[in-house]
What does this fold into?
Amino acid sequence: MSEMTPDAPQAPARPGFTERPPLPKRFYKQARAAATENGLFRIELDGRPVRTPGRNLVAVAGERLAQALAQEWDAQGEFIDPVTMPITRLANSAIDGVASAMTEVGEEIVRYAGSDLLCYRVDTPAQLVALHAELWDPLLAWARERFGATFMLSEGVVHVAQPPRTLEALSAALPGDPLRLAALNLMTTLSGSAILALAVAHGRLSPEEAWRAAHADEEVQEKLWGSDAEALARRATRFRDFEAAARAYALLEG
It folds into this structure.
């Protein structure tokens, strides 16, 4: 941490690759959102602006989002734990990375749409076939009505190419600002579905509904053969980031 300008937390190291560094101690009393001269809202710790790991100012367009960021900083205890600050980590990613790679990030979302989770079906067991139809078919219909995007379905894991017009339609629907694009990209990669991410972003689904749809296979497997505690814990951690991305998107939309 810099003595003059506080740094925003970085994402924790990936398990199995490098050991997670010790958590820094909390060094401030109060966090708050403050308006800037250019109409943005920055995060201040005891009056000092927070910067990203890339040394950029943490400043966002929406006051409500800035307040949510400040709340994450205020909620820290004796130590600052980035795992408990998902919106802050998302903002860091948007400011340091996505802002200078908007085209590439947008293309990644479109690539997911090209092999979207919702397009790959099974013929057994019957419970999963029925759940896919219940949860996924209405979303494909919504994508067709909302964006003019018609998706082709495949059975099993055989790749099916999606119509160019479908991918072009979804590309045109992507947000034009780094933070919302970062949020949409995170929801897409965590769920495996650009359709689900867009459905949350546009208010068609709640984060909980989208997460259930993304894990229809696991839901049926757990009903048939039981659940695994470690798998459930990993899923809960991923949902925390998914929900935070959805919340950040909604705060900017509002």
User: Anything to note?
Assistant: The mean pLDDT is 92.
